[in-house]
Amino acid sequence: MSKKSDIVLEIELDENNVPEKLAWTASDGGINNEEAKAYLLSVWDSNAKETLRIDLWTKDMPVDEMKQLIHQTLVGLTDTYLRATADELMADTMRQFTDYFAEKLNLKKAPNQ
Predict the structure, then answer these.
(1) What is the pLDDT of residue 13?
(2) 63-85 and 88-104 are packed helices; what angle lies between their axes, rounded to 10 degrees?
(3) Mean pLDDT by 10-residue block, N- to C-terminus, for the chain (113 residues)?
(4) How far apart are CA 107 and CA 113, in angstroms?
(5) Distance from chain centroid for Cα 50
(6) What's the number of CA atoms in the CB half-sphere (13 Å) around residue 35?
(7) pTM for the full predicted model
(8) DSSP per residue over the chain, as a string?
(9) How far is CA 21 from CA 39, 59, 73, 76, 89, in A?
(10) How far apart are CA 100 and CA 23, in angstroms?
(11) Please, how many CA atoms are within 13 Å of residue 15, restricted to the half-sphere of its CB?
């Protein structure tokens, strides 16, 4: 028996088609029309062997939050890469880069914060 689950992304655009409001719903996860400031969605097209992407953010998304979003996305991709490939060596290299990225953008929090 298979089960179907939907994730719904809602995008409210201004007159220039720039996202003003974003919201998402994932009823299986208990999320209902939850506000978001950005979506970074990647879909693998196995026929073309390429990634299709949708990167959207609202016009009022602060740059400092965008930097955090990108950093956390890179950290998450590193974890996903390791789980999918068990390639510890490359995952360590990716971690070194994400640490460097965070350091250069002053995203690292002090240990007691």
Answers:
(1) 97
(2) 170
(3) 93 96 95 97 97 96 96 98 98 98 88 54
(4) 12
(5) 18
(6) 6
(7) 0.86
(8) -------EEEEEE-TTS-EEEEEEEEGGGTEEEEEESEEEEEEEETTTTEEEEEEEE-TT--HHHHHHHHHHHHHHHHHHHHHHH--HHHHHHHHHHHHHHHHHTT-PPPTT-
(9) 11, 9, 21, 25, 40
(10) 32
(11) 0
CB contact set of 40 (below 8 Å; sequence gap of 6+): 53, 54, 55, 69, 73
Cβ(45)–Cβ(68) under 8 Å?
A: no
Cα 103–81–100 angle (5° rounding)? 10
CB atoms within 10 A of CB 22: 19
